[in-house]
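Saturday, quiet lab. Running sequence design on the structure tokens for the scaffold JK sent over.
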């Protein structure tokens, strides 16, 4: 079973804590966070401890819209996107890996939202994440 990281509610969140807890894939995570904050995206990552998830999670927003949720695990970090039936229709047309499309097709809705979740360990995985972020941010 995979172990969730960033689970200490008493720690003051910092870059050092993130680096320590994300270990070998910190360079990939750091690249993602730097890229989404760049002028090309203009997104804002907001780290907060969530009692219901018992961990620090990162909500990535564009203006007031939540684009994605990020969590850190022992051997990867996970990024989740949530779509309504209407907003998820364009996923099939995106230039992303087929496994992400299949994930969307096969997952049961959580309330009215259907997830697309990616486990990220390598820089090569980030292009699909950026594509999903652009798509989500562009939805009305």
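Result came back. Writing it out in full:
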């Amino acid at each position: 079973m995979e172990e969730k990281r960033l689970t200490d509610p008493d720690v003051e969140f910092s870059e050092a804590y993130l680096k320590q807890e994300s270990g070998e894939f910190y360079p990939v995570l750091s690249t993602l966070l730097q890229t989404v904050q760049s002028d090309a995206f203009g997104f804002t990552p907001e780290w907060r401890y969530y009692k219901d998830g018992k961990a620090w999670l990162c909500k990535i927003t564009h203006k007031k819209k939540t684009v994605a949720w990020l969590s850190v695990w022992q051997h990867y970090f996970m990024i989740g996107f949530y779509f309504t039936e209407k907003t998820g229709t364009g996923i099939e047309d995106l230039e992303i890996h087929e496994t992400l499309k299949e994930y969307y097709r096969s997952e049961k809705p959580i309330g009215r939202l259907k997830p697309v979740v990616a486990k990220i360990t390598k820089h090569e995985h980030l292009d699909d994440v950026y594509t999903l972020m652009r798509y989500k941010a562009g939805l009305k």
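Notes for JK: The beta strands are 44-50, 55-62, 65-72, 77-83, 114-120. The chain has four helices and five strands. Ask whether to fix the surface positions before the next round.
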